[in-house]
Every structure is written in C-alpha cells, then in structure tokens.
Amino acid sequence: MTVAEVRKRYLDFFAQRGHAIIPSAPIVPENDPTTLFTSSGMQPLVPYLLGQPHPEGTRLADAQTSFRAEDIEEVGDNRHTTFFEMLGNWSLGDYGKKEEIPWLYEFLTRELLFPPEKLWVTCFEGDESLGISRDNESAEIWQSLGIPQERIRFYPARKNWWSRSGIPANMPTGEIGGPDTEVFYDFGTSHDPAFGETCHQNCDCGRFVEIGNAVFITYKKTIDGSFEKLAQQNVDFGGGLERLAFAAIANPDIFMIDVFDEARHVLETKSGQSYENAIATRSFRIILDHIRAAAFFIASGIRPSNTEQGYILRRLIRRSIREADKLGITEPVLAAVADGFGKAYEDAYPFVLASAAAIKDELEKEEAQFRKTLTQGLREFERMGQQIDAFILFTTYGFPVELTVEIAAERGISIDLRAVEQKMAEHQARSRASAAQKFAGGLADHAEQTIRYHTAHHLLLKALQMVLGPEVHQRGSNITSERLRIDFSYGQKMTDEQKTEVEKIVNEKIRESIPVLRTDMPKEEAEKLGAEHEFGATYPDTVSVYSVGPLDNAFSIEYCGGPHVANTSELGEGGKKFRIMKEEASSSGVRRIKAVLE
Ligand code: ATP
Ligand code: MG
C-alpha cells in the first residue's frame, strides 16, 4: 500500500462518517510569531478546541504537513522524520470515545488491513490526587473490539495525558486537557536490552511504534487546582501518515515507504553503495528526511538564511551535504534527490513539483557554496584539536553551530556553547553598532532561548540533587535553542514520581522570580560555598560563580561563565513551563535528561 493510498483511505473513511475534509495549514504558521513551524494537526485548530465555532462544522479531518525540529537528532532510527504528515480527525463537542475508538480500530483493521494481533494500546492510569479516575472506559472499548487485556497497558500522565502545558500539575487555571489513548504497531523485531529489561508499548527499542494518539479533551482546570468536566468535550486524533504507511507494508523501516523510493535510488546510484549497507543507512536516512523537508520548505517560500526558518533550512541542507560527503559523493547531488520528492507528491502537493526550478536553484547554490568550504573547514576542525572554535567555523566556513557540535561529539569532544553564544552576541552587538547589515548569525537569533535553557540547566541540576540525592553531579551538557540536555551521575532509571517532583521544583523556582547573580571570587571561597563544578575541570585562582538567589541564601551555586537570564521569571515568559521530555541511560552509571520550556 502506498502513502497516497493510506492518506486517501483515511480521508474517505472519515468523510463517509460526516467529517468535513479541511486543507493542510501552511508549514509556517500564519499569524503566530511564537512558533517557527506547524508541528501537528491539532496546532492550527486550537482556537476551535477552545470553543470558537468552526465554519465547517463539528466534525473535521485532514492531512497536515508537520515539522519537528526537536526530533532532528532522532532521525536515523527506524521511525522518526523531522517532516511528516499527520492525519487527524476531530470532534468539536460532537462524538466521543464510543465512536472514536471503534472507528480507529475499523480503519486500521478493515481499511489498512492490519492484523489485529499487531495492535497494542495504552490508556491513562488516572490520578486520584486530582480526582481524575483511570480511563477504564477506553480500555473496555478496546477490549470489546478484541484487544485483549495483555495488550492494553495503563501509564501515568507523563505518557497518556495531553494539555498544551503538559501534565495536569503544570496546567494553569482555565487550561483544557484530558487523557489519551495511544495505538502501537508491533513489528515483532527482537527486543534490544539496551533499552531496558523488558519490552512494552513505550519502550524505545523500535519493536513498538506509536502510530496514533486519540486525546479526549474532557477537563478544565479550576482556580482551586481541581478539574471540572468541560461543557464542550472534544476528540483530537493524530496519526503519522508515514508511520501508518510503513506499518501497512509491515516493514520496520519508515524510509522504505514508496515516497522515498526514487530519492533513495538516486543516492544509491551516486554513492555506489546500497542502502542496506549498515554504515551508509544512517547517512541515507538523514539526507532523505532533510531534503524532503527542504523541498517542502523551499516550495513554501522559505529560503536558506541565517535567521528563523531560513536557518533551519540551511542546517538541514548543510548537514545533508556533510552526510553525502561521508558517503563519498563528491558531485552535487541534492537537487537530484529533491527531484524524486516533487514526483512522489505530484498529486497530493502539486506545489512542490511546481516549484522544482526554485528547489533546484536553491539547493545547487547552497551546495556549491558549502562544498567549497566543507573540506577546508573540516581540516581547520582537525587542526583545532580539542579546542574547537565553533564561532570561527560558522563565520569563516559556514558550519552551522549544531553541525560543529555534532562532528565534535562524534570525536568525543564537547563544545562550550556558552562561549560560542557570547561571541555571537558580541559579534551581533558590534555589527549593530556599525549599522552594518543585520547580523547573519542563526544562533544569535536564538540566543535568548538558549540562555534561558542555560539557566534552566542550573535549576534542573539542583532539583535533581534534591530529589535523587546530593551525590548527583553533572557529567556533561549540551544546550541549544530547542532544548537542554544534561548527563548526570545516577545509577537507576528515574521513576515517574521523581521526574514529576523535579519538574515541580524547577517550575516553582521559575514562579518565585529569583534573581540570577554573577560573583567573581577566589577559588577557595567558591569551594567553601560548595559551588557545583564540572567533573574533571580545572579552574583558575579567581572564578566566576552564578547563583540563583543571593549567595547567602541561594537555591543553586555553580562555577560558570554565563551567560544567564537576570531573573528566573524570564524562563516562564509567555506561560512556558519546564518539562522533562526524556530520561534515559547515557552510559554506565550516567543518566541523560532532555528537557524543554514550552
Ligand atoms: P514518538 O513518541 O513516537 O516520538 P510522539 O508522542 O512525539 O511520538 P505525538 O505528539 O503524539 O507523537 O504525535 C502524534 C502522532 O504523530 C504519533 O502517534 C506518530 O504517529 C506521529 N509522529 C510524531 N512524531 C513523529 C516523527 N518525528 N516522525 C514521524 N511521525 C511522527
Ligand atoms: Mg504521543
């Protein structure tokens, strides 16, 4: 079954059940400067989920082109792409669980012909402290359809609750949310114990892949922190089209679906390597994903630049060029790869093929430019040894900072992003002062958000020590404008309760609006204060220390060069909340957390 067939069957199925089929919103959201890209089918529909009447009625369905920059590092596994289509159907105060779950089941088993035994599901386990009961109703509906109890598993809010602010505790008064039920396809591949002792729906080893998620928007948070049922209860279903399509061909590799065929073939021919060759697979996947996204971006009017969406596009293209280089492809190749996508989407998104000339032109320009400096830049990189200057590599050789960080990580070198940020900020200030053209530093445009993440990093480390014990210390870190990552010493997987507690502490400190202060002092004094320092680092006699709160009453004190926000309240601007996205093993005795402010 092809991607086009899955999309058509889905939209027809819901049209037959009274849904208006609405067009995909643009990949760059209209009238919303707070986000760069549309990242789900639900996103453009939020006003209607909040109660505004939709002109097309109370039953809607669509296929929404979506982009998730935060998944960029996941690309290379068997199921993540940055760009994908999300199939969605909505009930705006119309039908509920009793319709949604049986329809979903019918669509999967009768339209896509999934063998029922391949389907596993999850439901919300409830939270007594909030007065929200376990979602037995959804589980019973699944059972009545033939999904046995062993394939239904209950998870807490972290996995099976949706609200714009995450778990119930993080929701502000008036916010809406509710439990969800997720459907997983079992590819039946053997379990990889690196991901945990046993395999289950939410295990990341690749056997189970989430193909869809139905949210039952049922509750509103009241002023006293309790939850009341909404007058208009909504259903919001989102399922990855590509995920459904690779399940439909029962091939546990998302890049084997038909829309990638021609582009994959181009890469095989030009590199002389087969996709199945283990070393090449990851590079192939990155190029296939990134150039498909790039083709849609350029066709949508985005151009490579050093700011906003244009910077993300440049990052995708330049990262692809490096991967092509790794594959031994020395001639320009991206335009030919993109060509394959114009054809693959000729019927569903004719604007991509119609923009073929612009796509070719932009990719060729970018490839010619970056190929000129790539080899020299890599040579310069090697010459720098352990002292990698990402600022020079960006300004002189055009290496997006994230690319430098990635190359460094491959060689076990970590980069002081804070120092890069500072140089970028200074450079930006200088260019402003000379009234020269607007500074072209992608990072600088994201600098504010990166600085917030840096401060959140300090709050997080302290909160981890409070919850897990004082023996927890930092073992590594990596901060971008999209998220923060910390590696820390701790021997076990954190429980959901511990994660929730850590989030709570960090969000409390954000709410308390605590000043963040820098003090320079002799090293011995910092030691006496018990300032947190980096493992294995050596420091000069005078050190600078950042404290959250005044030194004599600080929440956290760390040796650190900055930069930081002036006050923790800046982390919560625009109603943002701190949230742990992932907690996993990094190496023996070291755990890794990825977290966001959103
Ligand atoms: P996962 O945990 O697998 O990364 P998710 O929980 O982030 O998925 P949702 O936010 O629930 O996904 O999005 C709804 C659906 O969109 C998912 O069920 C999945 O089918 C699809 N989807 C989400 N992220 C991706 C991605 N990076 N690539 C392809 N499909 C995706
Ligand atoms: Mg999900």
The CATH architecture term of the largest domain is: 2-Layer Sandwich
Gross morphology: globular
Give the radius of gyration. Answer: 25 Å
Counted beta strands: 16
Distance between the termini: 37 Å
Low-confidence stretches: 436-445
Derived from helix and strand composition plus strand pairing, the structural class reads: alpha+beta
CATH class of the largest domain: Alpha Beta
* Overall pLDDT level: 91
- What is the helical fraction, as a range of percent? 25-40%
Task: Catalogue the ligands.
Answer: adenosine-5'-triphosphate, magnesium ion
Write the layout of secondary structure elements.
Layout: H1 3-16, E1 20-21, H2 46-49, E2 59-67, E3 83-92, H3 97-111, E4 119-124, H4 136-145, E5 152-155, H5 157-160, E6 161-163, E7 176-186, E8 208-221, E9 227-240, H6 241-248, H7 261-271, H8 278-299, H9 308-326, H10 334-344, H11 350-354, H12 356-384, H13 390-397, H14 401-410, H15 417-433, H16 442-445, H17 447-468, E10 474-479, E11 484-489, H18 496-511, E12 516-522, H19 523-528, E13 542-548, E14 556-559, E15 578-587, E16 590-597
Parallel strand pairs: 1-2, 4-5
Antiparallel strand pairs: 2-3, 3-9, 4-7, 6-7, 7-8, 8-9, 10-11, 11-16, 12-13, 13-14, 15-16
Bound molecules: adenosine-5'-triphosphate and magnesium ion.
